[in-house]
Amino acid sequence: MCCLLLTSCIKDELANTECDIISAWVEGDQYKNLFYQPESDMRFEQLSSTESRITFTVRSILSLPDIPVHFTITPGATIQPASGSVQNFREQPVTYTVTSEDGSWQRKYIVEFREPDLPKLHYNFENVEQKTEELNFLFFTVKATFFSWYETVMQDGKESRQDIWASGNPGFGVGNSGAELMSYPTLSEENGYEGKCVKLVTRDAGPFGKPMKKPIAAGNLFLGKFDIDKVTTDPLATTRMGIRAPFTEEPIKVTGYYKYQPGAEFINEEGVVQPGVVDQGHIYAVVYRNQDENGNAVMLDGGNVLSSKYIAKKAEMKTLPPTDVWTPFEMFFEGDRLDSQLLDNRGYNLALVFTSSKEGARFLGAIGSTLYVDKVDITLENDDQ
User: Fold this and answer.
1) CA nearest 296: which of 46, 31, 20, 109?
2) Are the beta carbons of 186 and 147 closer than 8 angstroms?
3) Rounded to whole angstroms, how far apart are CA atoms 370 and 177?
4) Nearest CA among 113, 11, 121 for reference residue 66
5) CB of 136 within 8 A of CB of 49?
6) Are 63 and 82 in contact (CB under 8 A)?
7) 3-state secondary structure 229-294
8) Interior CA angle at 28 toward 24 and 31, to 5°?
9) What is the spatial distance between Cα 293 and Cα 61, in angstroms, rounded to a whole number?
10) Residue pLDDT, tens place only, 157-211
11) What is the pLDDT of residue 50?
12) What is the pLDDT of residues 154-165, one digit of tens each?
């Protein structure tokens, strides 16, 4: 530990090896009418160290003028093109290169402006890849390979990729260096209801879990992002749940198919078996306001996604009875009607979450609990289906 602390002190003194973008923003009243929610859409704060793409959402890409983007970067680093320089983002994204103060390290960031993604309301989990990342954990960097999902839509005659899904796989990877692909909590399975499906398994969290009173790692998949920087400091905040709602109409229900079996022994945060307690899977969806009263961006996480005052509608499977065969589920959104003006101006986010252990966010569950999910659809008020 003394060696690690010494390493930390040396690293702090040699901060000139860092080359990160910390924040990015557009400033100027003349640009506000380009954005749906100017107060939050024009600025990104506290970017994760794993972020490599920064996307500004605008009303129209065709009417986008040449525009400056400003950056805060790590002390002593430099960035090219320069922060605040005017760039043309209409034709294609712009790549920025951040170089550390000592010149030894570089990171490339893709900055883009784009219109809201076309509605994607049907999820079949066919688009999956094996993703390898170098993840920072304490004073170490580990390489992890795990499954990652994305969606595609046709836009302007071309297939557009949407990286809207996230899981806790990166967090499991940093605590289990060298883990095999199929030992991760969130997996792709070939034998789905139709084609591939998602397989979520509650795992032993590994050697770092029990001492930190986090003995299990529940399989999960959600619309949003995973923030690896908060794994040790604020685990609930690692799951940044929600994307800009992919609809401008009232959502009615979520349907799909599942299989579920709980693990044999439910354990608490100390790793002690709780006799008589049976684990449960969990599926839910939340629509929430993505700005607060002062115009600041709102992003819910594992600690408040079911309790925040900004929630407008919620759909939840209260129970998932165990079953070994594909079984349909249906959950209806409850709450007041959404504000039509906010809907038109993209003022809501949608969180859709699947997990193998209902109390997994609190690191409670049964190792071996397994949830399969496939063919999930969101129905809107005027849908014909």
Assistant:
1) 46
2) yes
3) 23
4) 113
5) yes
6) no
7) HHCCCCHHHHEEECEECCCCCCEEEEEEEEEEECCCCEECCCCCECCCCCCCCEEEEEEEECECCC
8) 90
9) 28
10) 778 888 999 999 998 998 888 899 999 999 999 999 999 999 999 999 987 777 7
11) 77
12) 766 778 888 999
pTM of the model: 0.81
Strands 266-267 and 323-332, bridge-based pairing: unpaired
Q: Tokens 């939340």 correspond to what residue?
A: 286
> From CA 274, how far away is CA 265, in angstroms rounded?
7
* Angstrom distances, CA of residue 17 to CA of 46, 48, 61, 137: 19, 17, 36, 17
Give backbone dihedrals phi and psi of 56, rounded to 5 degrees, phi first.
-95, 130
Beta strand pairing status for 203-204 and 216-217?
A: antiparallel
Residue tagged 């049907």 (tokens): 122
CA distance 221 to 210: 23
Question: How confident is the model at residue 236, as a pLDDT?
Answer: 82
**Over 50: is that where the pLDDT of 6 sits?**
no
Q: Sort 174 into a burial class: Cβ within 10 Å, 0-12 / 13-18 / 19+.
A: buried
Task: Give the contacts of 309 (CB within 8 A, at least 6 positions apart).
Answer: none
Question: b/e per residue, 19-55, with b = 16+ CB within 10 A?
Answer: bbbbebebeeeebeebbbbbebbbbbeebeeebeebe
> Across residues 130-152, what is the average pLDDT?
83
Peptide bond connecting 81 to the previous residue in cis, omega within 30 degrees of 0: yes
Q: Which sign, positive or negative, has the C-alpha torsion 255, 259, 261, 266?
A: negative
